[in-house]
């Protein structure tokens, strides 16, 4: 029934909302337990039909709290999951803003030594998603997107390939 599906979505949303609330405390966000949630959250995001801003917030809080968080996000395919979903986010929404911040953080942490064919593919997804948003947005987020595109195109790994 329709109510069963709606309740199911609420039950799936609740743990992420609670985890995101806890992660507002940097000591909790940087804990090994929270970092270990990143691959599962990304897997859920890659299979989910509904996009929840709380998932982005959780990933952002954990990845900014510690180096292990951002590396877990990169190594678990964060670029590959987040970039394609940007086209489904409402233009100019808070979720879009957080997604852009996550992508900026991930791109800033990539090194030329970590670049391989998979990373280049992930960056192409980022460029495509951000370029689309850059074309349609007419607010302050446009400058964040320009900064992100600039970071990709002016990076050492972009210039060396």
TrEMBL record:
Source organism superkingdom: Eukaryota
InterPro entries: Neurochondrin
PANTHER family: NEUROCHONDRIN
Name under which the protein is recorded: Uncharacterized protein
Taxonomic lineage of the native organism: Eukaryota, Viridiplantae, Streptophyta, Embryophyta, Tracheophyta
């Amino acid at each position: 029934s329709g109510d069963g599906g709606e309740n199911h979505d609420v039950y799936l949303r609740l743990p992420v909302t609670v985890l995101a609330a806890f992660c507002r405390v940097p000591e909790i966000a940087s804990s090994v337990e929270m970092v270990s949630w990143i691959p599962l959250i990304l897997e859920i995001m890659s299979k989910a039909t509904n996009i929840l801003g709380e998932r982005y917030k959780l990933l952002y809080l954990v990845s900014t709290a510690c180096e292990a968080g951002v590396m877990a996000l990169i190594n678990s395919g964060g670029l590959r999951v987040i970039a394609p979903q940007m086209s489904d986010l409402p233009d100019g929404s808070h979720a879009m803003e957080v997604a852009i911040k996550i992508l900026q953080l991930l791109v800033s942490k990539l090194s030329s030594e970590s670049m391989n064919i998979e990373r280049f593919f992930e960056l192409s997804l980022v460029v495509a998603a951000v370029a689309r948003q850059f074309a349609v947005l007419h607010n302050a987020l446009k400058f964040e997107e320009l900064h992100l595109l600039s970071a990709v195109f002016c990076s050492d790994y972009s210039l060396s390939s």
